[in-house]
Design a protein that fits this description.
heterotrimer, A alpha/beta, B alpha+beta, C alpha/beta, B: OB fold (Dihydrolipoamide Acetyltransferase, E2P), 3-stranded antiparallel sheet, C: alpha/beta, Aspartate Aminotransferase, domain 1, 2 domains, globular
């Protein structure tokens, strides 16, 4: 498809402005002006509408395709939540920070306060901040809180421990806060090796970051012991909430002993992924860390009005412009309101049921390195298919030809040729049965006619792309 | 010229007090199409096992460790614009840098060609 | 059964039988009893109708009838209707990060076009596919300059948005970085002081255009001085101003960042919008986050992929250029659609109207008794008023009349209690501006 810039026709206009009836201002000094106008396209509104409508049709999405992408929780994004967020589009964030401005922003402030309270209850934490704008941003904020905690106690800490099955963001986020990383291998039972952890833990460990259930979709039965061991050297325990969709109402990280958590509202709480964002990564903590929270914070007053709290002098500062991705927060609030207590518990139960159903039906055809009841996702390996020269990526590409978005492949890194499947609770048995049949077909093709898999996809606007050329040539901007 | 190998898949070939370092054919194959080689600064001193260079392919990133301690005396600047040379000829024209050998004794801990072949 | 979970009890029973367990509870058996949730005190669910009613009542508790003369990185700009309609296509908003390029060409091409648009606005050579917001983009740029130069001293103009400064300090708190702050001189960058602070450990000078007070600095000489000393120049810009103002590239800037809210994203109480970052080609490997690149498929047809991924967290883990994973893709798409609709001439007209209306406001407000304006510094669509009394009091009084007259600078700078930062966008009519002047006059009597 032509680029939007390639469709430009000199003199064509898409937007007109109201007549400016103020008087003409004196021009700015010439040295402050740009030499040439920015080469934006010149198009009619219809040109633009056709272009982006056509582009949208080149995408797979939850609304058009089954999207069992492991670790991403691609559940259905209900349309009522979108409508809810639009109600807040016209409100300026700065207004609430002006003198007397809080009174004019009561609805927004109340929504922030209430959402924080609900998320704290869901996770068993003492308080939540909504300022971080994505999961990794929440992780970084959490690590900053951990650093502030140790600094205040004059603890000399240097290391953050992560299991080798962790999301790449965990070590990257801890490194952004200046920590050195220690990686612990996975034991045969599919979770962090407890003995290796014990051997590694020392007084210089600031924190351990865990995903529970982990990226293999397994719940770690030793999680409480790990928390207690960490606390014995005043290391804090961090909960990566990427997989919270498995355990709502069943387990609360705060009850187990986790000190800091982040959530991904765009995974667990039904807000859309937006082709890669915006997300929202609220952070919850235990009482001893609340004073380090980033500002601004919303508080409820004695008369039930809401205001922006006076900043605690221990605050780490701010991690974003204003109150975080507020529009995303509205959608998550709407989700919690609508589903309610029973609906949240049911979401987790059905997510786990669906994942186990797929796992049970496919394990005859694909290797299952950790063969046990899973939580909300399961991880297969294409190692059996490798014998006929077929890799996980070939199966992924074949699924595209069958109109299904591939599962996550090659993650977690500890499983060779990993195929990580997370159906979520919003998918029907019919959809999953169709997926299972196609996966079985792929397994059979790997033996009978592997070339079909290697050539796939053929029914897409483009076939497999030359990623080496892209990385070597680095054409990332259309030059005039 | 003697050639030695490491468990991290580097090769080192020694000529008097100068050693040339690169990654093995096996390593190059495992990495796939190499898209970038971060060369060390000439003049930099490294200890054995410290990071010497970094290599990126489309789907992986890998550090190159110093097989022995020494000072970097030259780098293969061709790789800055043509990283694919590492794929094409990892053990010849795809060399990464030369080192001034600090302690020849360190070479004793490395594998010879036969041992490396058995190792992989 | 919630209406979003489609499987009927009999289907669930079939599935349990396939798995070989008798109940859903059995699937959770692996969780030790003593770890079960101690509480889950969440209200009972409700219908969509009731939910929307409840949220609508919260939205109604905000005041809707306010005329905004406030900015500070979020601006009340017009958004053409087509932006909402296109960005609300669910093929865009319900897709994930385009890791599988063959079924994500829509997103990938749009992001490539977005990167191109950012390059054309700023004059830079490369852009990433978006960051969280303007403040975090500035912090990422600072970390990037430290990586590139291998130095750790940053020289920050205090005319940079104080909220951005706060976020920058928060990001740097756990790093061994020396952050030098330059006192403003006549609401502008103190160039002499900046040059004096440059030494052989300086990674970057950080400035903003127009700065928080609305002033526009000519950066050419400061860029040259920074480069002479081996340091970089980081410039946070207000994208709308680039319809008129010299590009950061023309000024000699090395890393450009900014907030994209003003390009087609609603105020939405502070987000989501997006941050942008652009630089020169030689620094591309040090740019944080995702980058889309052009390539070809097996048949030689043009296509787009996420590229240079080996720099990113999912491969390089703790050695990645940044921890960023999700960015603000959909907001960046809104920015691109906005720029495509408004077009080459429209973008210039938008900038012209912003400045023109602001200059009109300046001339009216400066005639209000007791008010003065520092008019020796050139400005774009924001400027500082000096009032005869506390700007906070004046703002509060005008808010009662439905006018958000500006941001009192005393909240951010010492000794500036009587100063007010006023913003005028293309949406402010002549009548609204005249009313502001009138009401301000009345308040000061």
């Amino acid at each position: 498809m032509e680029l939007i810039f390639e469709q430009s026709v000199k003199g064509r206009k898409g937007v007109s402005f109201p007549v400016d009836n103020t008087s003409e201002a004196a021009p700015l000094p010439k040295e402050l002006l740009r030499e040439e106008k920015a080469e934006l396209p010149e198009l009619s509104e219809l040109d633009v509408v056709r272009h982006f409508t056509k582009l949208s049709r080149l995408n797979f999405s939850v609304d058009t395709n089954f999207y069992p992408l492991g670790s991403c929780t691609m559940k259905y994004n209900a349309k009522g939540f979108e409508e809810a967020a639009k109600l807040f589009a016209p409100f300026h964030p700065m207004l609430s920070m002006l003198p007397e401005g809080e009174k004019l922003s009561q609805g927004s402030l109340e929504l922030i306060f209430e959402t924080e309270k609900l998320l704290a209850e869901i996770t068993g934490m003492d308080a939540v901040t909504l300022q971080p704008m994505a999961g990794a941003h929440g992780e970084m904020t959490g690590c900053m809180l951990i650093a502030a905690y140790h600094k205040a106690k004059e603890n000399k800490k240097k290391y953050v421990i992560v299991p080798d099955s962790s999301h790449g963001t965990n070590p990257a986020s801890a490194a952004m806060v200046g920590y050195e990383i220690i990686t612990i291998p996975t034991a045969a039972y599919g979770d962090m090796d407890l003995d290796a952890f014990k051997a590694t833990l020392n007084n210089e460990v600031a924190a351990i970051m865990m995903t529970c259930p982990n990226t293999l979709g397994l719940f770690n039965p030793y999680v409480k012991e790990i928390c207690d061991l960490a606390h014995s050297v005043d290391a804090l325990v961090y909960y990566d909430g990427a997989n919270l969709n498995a355990i709502m109402g069943k387990v609360r990280p705060g009850d187990i002993g986790f000190d800091v958590i982040h959530l991904n509202l765009h995974k667990t709480f039904g807000t859309p992924h937006g082709s890669g964002g915006p997300g929202s990564g609220p952070v919850g903590v235990k009482e001893s860390l609340v004073k380090f929270f980033p500002s601004p914070r919303v508080k409820k007053n004695g008369d039930s009005s809401f205001s922006i709290a006076k900043e605690d002098k221990s605050s780490i500062g701010s991690v974003s412009n204003f109150f975080g991705n507020f529009g995303v927060i509205v959608k998550a609030y709407a989700y919690i309101l609508q589903l309610g207590r029973e609906g949240l518990i049911e979401a987790s139960e059905q997510a786990v049921l669906n994942a186990n159903y797929i796992m049970s039906r496919l394990k005859e055809y694909y290797d299952l390195p950790y063969n046990q009841i899973c939580m909300h996702e399961c991880v297969f390996s294409a190692s059996r298919q490798m014998e006929s020269g077929i890799h996980a990526i070939d199966i992924a590409k074949y699924l595209i030809d069958r109109k299904i978005h591939p599962p996550t492949v090659y993650f977690p890194l500890i499983v060779k040729e990993a195929i990580m499947i997370e159906p979520t609770e919003t998918e029907s048995k019919e959809t999953m049965d169709n997926f299972i049949e196609i996966m079985i077909e792929a397994a059979k093709l790997a033996e009978s006619d592997p070339d079909i898999l290697r050539q796939a996809p053929l029914k897409t606007p483009v076939s497999r792309l030359d990623e080496t050329k892209a990385a070597r040539e680095q054409n990332v901007c259309c030059v005039l | 010229m003697e050639r030695y190998f490491t468990k991290e898949h580097e090769w080192i070939s020694v000529n008097g007090t100068t050693a040339t370092v690169g990654i093995t054919s096996h390593a190059a194959e495992e990495l796939g199409d190499i898209t970038f080689v971060e060369l060390p600064q000439v003049g930099k001193s490294v200890k054995r096992s410290e990071t010497l260079a970094a290599i990126e392919s489309v789907k992986a990133a890998s550090d190159v460790y110093a097989p022995i301690s020494g000072r970097v005396t030259s780098t293969n600047e061709t790789l800055e614009t043509m990283p694919e040379v590492v794929n094409e000829s990892p053990e010849e024209s795809g060399w990464i840098c030369t080192l001034e050998v600090e302690n020849p004794e360190e070479l004793k801990g490395l594998m010879n060609a036969e041992e490396y072949k058995a190792f992989i | 059964m919630s209406n979003y979970n489609p499987n009927t009890p009999s289907q669930q029973a079939e599935m349990l039988a396939t798995i070989g367990v008798s109940s859903i509870e059995e699937l959770f058996k692996v969780i030790p009893q003593e770890l079960k949730a101690k509480s889950f005190d969440i209200p009972k669910g409700m219908s969509e109708f009731e939910m929307l009613d409840k949220i609508n009542s919260l939205a109604s508790a905000n005041s809707k009838d306010i005329t905004f003369f406030i900015g500070g990185s979020f601006y009340d700009h017009y958004i053409p209707a087509a932006v909402d309609h296109l960005a609300n296509r669910s093929e865009f908003y319900t897709a994930y990060t385009p890791y599988q390029p063959e079924c994500s060409q829509g997103t990938l091409q749009a992001l490539y076009e977005y990167q191109t648009a950012i390059c054309r606005l700023t004059g830079m050579e490369v852009s990433n596919a978006s960051l969280y917001d303007g403040a975090t983009a500035l912090a990422e740029a600072a970390l990037m300059a430290i990586r590139i130069t291998g130095r750790n001293r940053l020289i920050l103009d205090d005319c940079v948005n104080p909220i951005y400064k706060r976020v920058l300090e928060t990001y740097l708190a756990n790093h061994d970085v020396e952050l030098i702050t330059l006192e403003p001189l006549n609401f502008s960058l103190n160039k002499e002081a900046a040059i004096k602070e440059l030494n052989n450990n300086s990674a970057a000078i950080i400035v903003q255009t127009p700065n928080f007070f609305g002033s526009i600095d000519n950066l050419k000489d400061i860029a040259a001085k920074a480069h002479e000393n081996g340091a970089l120049l980081i410039n946070s810009v207000y994208p709308v101003s680039l319809g008129l103002l010299a590009t950061p590239a023309e000024m000699g800037v090395d890393i450009v960042v900014g907030d994209g809210q003003s390009l087609g994203n609603p105020l939405s109480f502070g987000g989501p919008a997006f941050g942008f970052i652009a630089t020169s080609k030689k620094h591309i490997r040090n740019i944080p986050g995702r980058v889309v690149g052009e390539t070809v498929d097996k048949e030689g047809r043009r296509g787009f992929v996420l590229t240079l991924q080996a720099r990113e967290q999912h491969i390089k883990r703790h050695k990645a250029t940044s921890n960023i994973c999700s960015n603000q893709s959909l907001c960046a798409l809104r920015g691109l659609i906005f720029l495509s609709l408004i077009g080459k001439e429209g973008f210039v007209e938008m900038a012209r109207q912003n400045r023109n209306r602001a200059e009109y406001a300046k001339s009216l407000l400066s005639r209000v008794k007791g008010v003065s304006i520092e008019d020796s510094v050139p400005t774009f669509n924001e400027f500082v008023l000096k009032l005869p009394k506390s700007a906070s009091e004046v703002t509060a009084a005008l808010l009662k009349k439905g006018i958000a007259a500006g941001v009192p600078l005393g909240s951010y700078y010492k000794g500036m209690d009587n100063y007010l930062l006023v913003t005028v966008t293309e949406k402010r009519t002549k009548k609204e501006i005249e009313l502001l002047a009138e009401e301000l006059g009345r308040t000061l009597v």
